[in-house]
Amino acid sequence: MLSRLTRPKAVAVCAVPVVALLATAVFAPLPFSLAQPGLTANVLGENKGDPVITISGAPTRKTSGELRMTTIEATGPDANVSLGDVFSAWFATDKAVMPRDSVYPSGGSVKEIEQHNANEMKESQDNATEAALGYLHEKGDVKVTLKLADVGGPSAGLLFSLGIVDKLDGDGSGGDLTGGRVVAGTGTIDADGKVGAVGGVSLKTQAARRDGATVFLVPKAECSDAKAELPKGLRLIPVTDLEGAVNALVSLEKGKGSVPSC
Question: What is the Cα 93 distance to its own chain's centre?
Answer without folding.
Answer: 17
